[in-house]
Design the sequence.
């Protein structure tokens, strides 16, 4: 955005992509480029495959019957449109912040703040809630494998009848320490955990194939098309997480190639495993057996294949799966917060990168401590519902952002382009809006309250401290908002 020297940019000022990319090389504010396509793809798989597949398949089968298989495919298709848009923007704007940064470059500062503030809540509450689930699954594993369990007083939050959720605090602080240590180390650990949980799912699939039968597939769709779409709406949220890959844009060694591969590749890998798992589950257990269990995959193996010890293996798989989800989502939370701090919308001192580790250590530790307190003590049953609406809101803005940037910056290099734009991004918007419209009114009310609080903080702090209004922010004595808007050169040189 270019404006007169005596006029400050307004709340809808748009950041030039060139200035966004240049900030990634600033001393003390640049993140280490250390991850490749395999590690980024593992991040996507790590974020997507959590307890969802171990639990949600039972809920879906109860609604759609054997046609839950089609529901998994439909949910994947619904996510695919947004994944394509994320891939284009991540490869074109390899800067931390994900949907926040993309919105800043397309829709303006105030909209970027809204989505950034929304994502802070979404990711933070997600990590806290997932950490609580990790503690519950750890107890389930200890009970099924060794016949022991932690006492409720230190294994549950006050909301659930305990005093202090120690396992949840432990996993958040352990992951925080790992993220402080470095993105390379974090990516390696996540890769191992992804390997373990895919192995557990592969174990289930193989056993199901060996004991497979077709009797449970009739009738295939007892509730018709409505049942398939209703189950897809439930299953959709088992796919959420691929967007976390884009938060690692700035740390990718070759973002123009690796990010599209990782975002789309992780969604494809998870879809294949989800569909095969659904087919296998129906092949050895009836929909009634699946929907009647809190651990439907373990129930399928025990009742359909006669493997009574399967619960221990699947419980272990769930613990590992949730651990990797905590890792990737907390990583994404720190990078979004980091981007907002570097832009001045939040205190810039938190955007300082540790010289030894190459990570925003101070910021990561602060967020880790805050989230551990949430996980230990705060009731999450209601506010966790905000995660769904926050994610869908981000999907809407990212799809719109692709269309706008194609019109406002047609000359900008795009290593990956969404095919048939603006048709596919528009379909992505429609899918997201449809799912948002199905959310309860109470969720919308909480969402609006959170955004109103965020707007108050923006006008009291963010607007005045934004780099858009800070002379010399780019180190050349020129306000970052008044820079040249000539075509950008992609990372690695001109194409």
Sequence:
């Amino acid at each position: 955005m270019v404006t007169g020297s005596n006029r400050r940019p307004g709340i809808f000022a748009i950041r030039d992509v060139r200035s966004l990319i240049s900030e990634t090389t600033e001393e003390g504010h640049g993140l280490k480029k250390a991850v490749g396509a395999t590690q980024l793809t593992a991040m996507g798989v790590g974020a997507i495959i959590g307890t969802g597949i171990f639990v949600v398949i039972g809920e879906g089968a109860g609604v759609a019957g054997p046609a839950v298989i089609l529901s998994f495919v439909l949910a994947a298709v619904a996510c695919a449109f947004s994944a394509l848009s994320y891939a284009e923007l991540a490869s074109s704007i390899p800067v931390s912040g994900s949907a926040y940064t993309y919105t800043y470059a397309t829709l303006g500062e105030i909209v970027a703040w809204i989505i950034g503030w929304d994502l802070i809540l979404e990711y933070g509450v997600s990590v806290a809630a997932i950490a609580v689930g990790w503690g519950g699954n750890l107890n389930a594993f200890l009970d099924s494998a060794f016949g022991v369990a932690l006492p409720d007083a230190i294994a549950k939050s006050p909301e659930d009848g305990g005093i202090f959720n120690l396992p949840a605090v432990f996993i958040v602080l352990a992951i925080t320490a790992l993220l402080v240590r470095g993105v390379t180390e974090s990516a390696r650990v996540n890769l191992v955990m992804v390997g373990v949980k895919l192995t557990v799912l592969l174990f289930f699939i193989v056993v199901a194939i060996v004991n497979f039968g077709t009797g449970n597939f009739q009738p295939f769709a007892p509730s018709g098309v409505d049942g398939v779409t209703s189950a897809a709406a439930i299953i959709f949220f088992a796919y959420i997480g691929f967007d976390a890959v884009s938060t690692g844009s700035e740390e990718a060694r070759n973002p123009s190639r690796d990010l599209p591969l990782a975002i789309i590749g992780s969604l494809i890998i998870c879809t294949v495993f989800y569909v095969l798992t659904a087919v296998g589950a129906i092949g050895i257990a009836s929909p009634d057996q699946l929907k009647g269990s809190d651990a439907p995959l373990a129930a399928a193996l025990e009742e359909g294949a006669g493997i009574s010890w399967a619960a221990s293996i699947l419980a272990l798989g769930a613990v590992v799966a949730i651990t990797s989800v905590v890792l990737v989502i907390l990583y994404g939370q720190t990078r979004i917060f980091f981007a907002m701090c570097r832009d001045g919308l939040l205190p810039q001192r938190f955007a300082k990168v540790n010289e030894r580790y190459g990570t925003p250590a101070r910021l990561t530790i602060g967020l880790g401590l805050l989230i551990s307190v949430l996980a230990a003590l705060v009731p999450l049953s209601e506010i966790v519902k905000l995660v769904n609406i926050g994610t869908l809101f981000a999907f809407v803005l990212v799809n719109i952002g692709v269309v706008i940037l194609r019109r406002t910056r047609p000359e900008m290099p795009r290593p990956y382009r969404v095919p048939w734009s603006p048709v596919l991004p528009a379909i992505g918007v429609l899918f997201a809006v449809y799912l948002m419209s199905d959310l309860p009114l109470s969720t919308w009310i909480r969402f609006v309250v959170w955004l109103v609080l965020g707007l108050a903080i923006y006008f009291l702090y963010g607007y005045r401290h934004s780099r858009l209004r800070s002379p010399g922010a780019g180190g050349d004595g020129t306000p970052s908002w008044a820079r040249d808007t000539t075509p950008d050169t992609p990372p690695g040189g001109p194409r």
Notes: Residues 99 and 394 are 6 Å apart (CA to CA). DSSP finds 18 helices and no strands in the chain.
